[in-house]
Amino acid sequence: MTTLPETPNALVELRSGVLHFTFNRPDARNAMSVGLLNDLCNTFDAIAEDRSIRAVVLRGAGGNFCAGGDIKDMASARQAPRTQHSDPVIDYSRAFGTMLRKVNEAPQATIALIEGAVLGGGFGLCCVSDVAIAVADARFGLPETGLGLPPAQIAPFVVERVGLTEARRLGVCGGRFDGAEAARLGLVHFVESDAASLEARLDEVLDQIRRCAPQANAVTKRIMLGVSRADPDDLLDDAARDFAECLRGDEGTEGTMAFIEKRLPNWAAKD
């Protein structure tokens, strides 16, 4: 069983194969401090090989998802001295990209449960979730350019999520919009009217994920994420090898036999 790291800036709870990771800086609207960034990275590192954890639910305490990077940490990085081998501002910015990539490439299904402010780094986390569920009055935005900054580490993931033309518009206009517009853009998958409906939708999505084999989900994500990064023939060759390995493995054997025998496979939730 995975030993979860300490997370001073987040509430972490494992229930029925689902890791609930709650950003716990409500006074700062869950702005992504260096500490919270490290908590998130350390947690995803810890669970990377654990297929008993089927999904990770990301959410924020106090009614906000995440209001982006912590401005105080940005100021501290700017004031820190540069050396021949290190630039604190570059290191600070690049750490966001590392975190987003870890979440994006996690073998588990990742779900963003979105309320309130979804800005900057929070916007980026929405872009790298497998399933994003938002309340209608959530407030999305890319405020960086209004601060004289580019959304540097977030931008590639925004382009992948909503496409280049919409990403350009949002970037240069500092895009601000609600849950309905987020759904139109393809940023989120479901928009709910209130907190109760949000939780009900989460339960529905988790039920669907539990019907899927965990290793098959991990391989599926890896193949899909490689679509835009590889030569098409190389990608299809790799996918064929992945398929063969899965078909011959425990999950493929159990899943196909369960289908033939007209029963649920052993990983699926029982009614």
Overall CATH architecture of the largest domain: Alpha-Beta Complex
Which residue ranges are poorly predicted, with pLDDT under 50 across at least 5 consecutive positions?
A: none
DSSP summary: helix tally: 11
CATH topology descriptor of the largest domain: 2-enoyl-CoA Hydratase, Chain A, domain 1
Specify the CATH class of the largest domain: Alpha Beta
Largest sheet report:
6 strands, mixed
Termini Cα gap? 26 Å
Structural class of the secondary elements?
Answer: alpha/beta
Rough outline:
globular
Return the string of H and E elements.
EEHEHHEEHEEHHEHEHHHH
CATH homologous superfamily classification of the largest domain? 2-enoyl-CoA Hydratase, Chain A, domain 1
Share of residues in strands = 5-15%
| Strand order of the biggest β-sheet | 1-2-3-4-6-9
- Return Rg in Å: 19 Å
Give the helix proportion (percent range). 40-55%
Number of DSSP strand runs: 9
The count of domains is 2
Global mean pLDDT? 93
List keywords for this structure.
single chain; 271 residues; alpha/beta; 2-enoyl-CoA Hydratase, Chain A, domain 1; 2 domains; six-stranded mixed beta sheet; three-stranded mixed beta sheet; 11 helices; 9 strands; Enoyl-CoA hydratase
